Each structure stands twice: as C-alpha cells, then as structure tokens.
Amino acid sequence: MTKVSYVFFALIIAAGMLCCGCTTTTMPEDPAATRTITDMVGNQITIPAEGATFAVFGGPISQVPYLLGANDSVIAVTKGPQLMEMMQEMDPGIIDKPAPRTTNGNVNIEELLVTNPDCVIAFDVDGEIVESHTNIPVIYLSGTMSDGFDEMRREIAFMGEVFGKPDRAQAYIDYLNETLEFLRERTANIPEDERVTVFLGEGVSHLQTLGGDTFFTEWTAAAGCRNAVATIETTHGQQEGIHTGINEISMEQVLAADPDIIIIDTGSPAELKNDSRWKELSAVKEGRVYKQPTGLFLWSRPSAESAVLYPVWLAYKAYPDRFEDVPLTDRVKDFYAEIFGFTLTDEQAQKVIDGTYGSVTFGQVKQLG
C-alpha cells in the first residue's frame, strides 16, 4: 500500500470516529433526571428536572404561577382563589382542577393523593399536614401577615426558581419597584403630619383590622398615607399563626383614631352613614369610606397583586389631585396586561377599583369544603 493510501485510510477512520462522537452527544436526556431545590426554610427537595407537577396551597400565592406563565404545571389548587370571579375570567379552567386545600389547616388528603402532584408548595401548617399523611415532598414558603415588600420580592424570586421562570419573576419585581418609585415621587413632599390616615375595618363589625406589625402598614406608607391604628394595642382578640396581625379592636379605639379614610371589605359605605356609632367619624361625614377592591384574590392579604395595586388605589383615593394625569383604570389595566397577560375592559378595571368583583369569604370557603 502506498504512503498516500495509508494517509487516506487514516482520514476515513478519523472521520468515522468523529461521527460516532457526534451521535453520542445527541442522545436524549435521562427522563428520570432530577433537580434539587432549597426551599424558603432551608429544606432540600428533589423534583423532576422537567415536567414537574405541583399543588399550590395558599390564597395569595395561588396567583404566582400565572404571573410566571407556569400555571399549566399546577394540577391542584386552593379553593378560595378558585371561587374568585376574576380568577375564573382569567382562567376558566381553574374551576375544573381539584382543590384539596380550603383554608389554612384544612387539606383533603384523599383528594390530594388522587391528584398525586410531584410536590406541594405550602406554608407551615398545610405543609406539615401533607408531610404527616403522605410521601409527597413539600416545598415550604415562609410568609406571614407581617411580611412587606422585601419578603414579596424574595418570595416571587424563589417561586421563579421553583418553576424555572426567573426572568418572569424579575419582570414582576421590576414592575413593583417602578410602581413604588412612581408613588414615592408623587407623594414625597407631603409633610408627615398632613399624610392621610387610613383604617381598614374587616368583617361584619368592621372592627377586625391590620395593625402596625403587618404588611398593611407598608402598603399604606407606599401610598403616602399612615395606618391609623399602627400603634393601637389590641383589646378584643388576636389571631395567631399565619394570620398573626389580624386583630380586633374596640369601637372606642376607632373613634379615638378618627381616620381620614375608612376601607371596608363587607357591606357598603352607605351603611356606616346610618350607624349611630360610625356616622360621627370624619371619614363617614366627608364621604371617604370605600369598599376594598377585589381582583384575583382578597386585597387584605399580602399578594403579588395587592403589593402593586393596593398602594396605587389608595394613593389615588387619598390624593386625587396628584394623579389626575393618569386614570386609575389605565394603571389597573396595565398591571394585569403586563404581569398576567390578561387584558381587561374598562368595565372590568372599574369592578376591581370599586370592589364589586365577586369575592369569597373564608366562612364560605369552609362551608364549601
């Protein structure tokens, strides 16, 4: 064999080896591949690297998979958000998903086992129930009613990691930051003693409220306002656990605070005008009693939705002359379009603002099971 022939033969062998190498790198990935996540309390959880399915337990957190564009991977939900009118408009299919979790600490284990997600995303009480009755891994969140904007950013960033959508998570965080800066610029020059005081009165009595140790104080401050009962000591009852901070005060304490604005989540503002106790308050006399907005979930909870829109809505109510250039309906529509990809009509945006969207109370959720 000539020298040229040897060289030619060697080249053929080398080419064959290279081709074999090429085919090796295009082999499909191991379908059993997994990834490990460190949750918000420090536990490590292993889930499928691709195609993982989730159960999401918690009212406020239920909207996060939607803003991440990852809700198709959620196969079990929480009853409260499932029953919200606006949520059903955004995702008609949610009503058909199993809802084994109703309220905090109420989980239908049999329904969860039938659904069989790869993992459950939950807070402490629900997570402990799941772990004690099943072998389904739990990704723990760490939020409470005391959490403000920093914890919201942390929670959204973490959920972006869980669902493999860090860019969508960052887009929300950027939107939140830009909104807070917009409000700060519009309200920064208001003297502290001239800032509008706000009282949130929940429930039929309107005496359940959120004190100074809750997210609501941060939400009101972002709007250029002050929580009227931030320093009032609870006298008539205090909830613990995940709902720590929802306290009941006396009518005398409300009268002493005499807030500039009152927000209610039950009944109508007109009812307070006819109540011998409430009609003496400045907010009632001046027509500054408002129904709390509702959207994808209750705004009296720390959620991605309320963190952005509650301060905006409140700032517009407190200082309308400072926001005349941008209609509130436009800001509401922009938020849902940019963050959730959900286009609202003017009528839908107004329903959010007026608090007339069909909502659900926690008592109703418990009755429905």
UniProtKB/TrEMBL annotation:
Domain Fe/B12 periplasmic-binding: 53-322
PROSITE patterns registered for this protein in UniProt: FE_B12_PBP
Lineage: superkingdom: Archaea
Protein name: Iron complex transport system substrate-binding protein
Species this protein is from: Methanoculleus thermophilus
